[in-house]
Amino acid sequence: MTPLAAAPEIRTRDADRTRQAVLRAAMAEFADHGFGGARVEAIAERAGVNKKLIYYYFDGKDELFVAVLEQTYADIRAAERELQLEASEPLAAVQKLITFTWNHYLAHPEFLALLNSENMHRADHLRRSRRIRDMNSPLIDTLAQVLARGAERGEMRPGIDPMQLYISIAGLAYFYLSNHHTLGAVFGRELMSGDSLAERLAHILDVVTRYVRAA
User: What's the pTM?
Assistant: First the structure.
């Protein structure tokens, strides 16, 4: 391959790396300061790029926040696909999803912070996304298949709504982790110790397992 022919590919790779660097920097800035408090100048500094370059890739702060939200959902959906829930036994698949969701939230507190910020803005940015529903639908479809297999085998209750089940799984993890400061103060307990986290995961597993399991 001649150097002339390779140049466009190199430029494309460099552009992709730069765009990803901006997205990751923006993710950290928005997570730390929320949409309202985040500054494009600070994002440029975090990414090590010129501020003008951010406006080259994104029309503005709103569009950048939409892209950041899309990236965070793309990250978690890609990791969920690696679980291969459709290849697991139904009950084990649900428990695998619970454990993954809990651990992902623990490992990515920025995801929770971004959701908190977007809820403050009533999902205004997510509603602008053309990709977000397409990214989330396959997970619900897979979970529906898992629940159907479980019901056919008599292992799970029939008629469970996969979307409601996923919201419950996410909510049981999300509420605890995003509110651990206030909950810890109210109940006088250290909720983020290793023992407390293990206790919470065991509780979520028990609650959801008892719900989905056939009588």
Answer: 0.91
